[in-house]
Amino acid sequence: MTWEAAPTGKRGRQPSYSDAAIQTSLTMKVLFGMALRQTTGFVESLLRLIGLDWAVPDFSTLSRRQKTLKVHIPYRGSDGPLHLLVDSTGIKVEGEGEWNARKHGGTKRRVWRKIHIGIDEKSLEIRAAEFTTSEIGDAPFVGQTVPRTVCWPSSLPELLDQIPPEQEIGSVTADGAFDTRKCHDAIAARGAAAIIPPRKNAKPWKPDTAGAVARNEILRTSKRVGRTIWRRWSGHHRRSRVETKMHCVKLLGQRLSARDFDRQVAEFQVRVAVLNGFTALGTPITEVEA
Q1: Do 62 and 159 share a structural domain?
Q2: For the Transposase DDE domain, which residue ranges apply (predicted)?
Q3: H or E segment to which residue 150 belongs
Q4: What span, in angstroms and rounded, lies between the C-alpha atoms of 237 and 179?
Q5: 142-198 pLDDT, tens per residue?
Q6: SS3 at position 290
Q7: Is 166 part of any domain?
Q8: Among 84, 171, 176, 288, which residue's beta carbon has the most beta carbons within 10 A?
């Protein structure tokens, strides 16, 4: 890892610390729930313990660089087609907790965000992640790719866009909130099978697209054999793994400490990078010996 930043070749003051140094410091902040000033002192102590006389970014540098940080999210991948498990949830930014709000009413200013993740069923690593405002549902209309400072609708289609085109997707498993035309069309466009239960009041769609035809087949099958048997037959129960992964995201903190939207995006992405690292360390490697 390179701690000092390489010259940018542009005019003006050059950055002192690389993105890896900033991400390492923010990783310590996320892991131990510290403030920026505490993070600076903690990283400085760690470097001193391992005998490195490196300069440490101060709290204002961490705050400024966090806004534009390109977080590196590692993943190992797996052999064969990718089976993606998708889920969404909300995370608190400002305001009291749910219990205090129900008990005492809470304040009027309660802000939260939506996080959307897609994990690899085999490796359990997060392969796609999106961060949006609370107005965005699980499966809204498809928006174009925009900078992260713009809070446009984004969920399942944008999660699929994060998977490289050369990566084959075998199936996409999600809950009934994703039972929309745009989601089924996006899944069919990647040549994947949609494992999404139809809503209870679902009606057949006009079979004008491949996604609509596949969804109508799911609807007919679930009505013929029953929703319980269809879930067991299709393997929809595997979606519980992404719910467990979402719980792990919350274990790193029930709320976000950043107040600016761009910094909140970076904080969430750092959590994703931390969880993928933990997943890789906790997965055993099995080798067959003669």
Answers
A1: no
A2: 2-96
A3: none
A4: 17
A5: 333 333 333 333 478 899 999 999 999 999 999 998 999 999 999 999 999 999 999
A6: coil
A7: yes
A8: 84
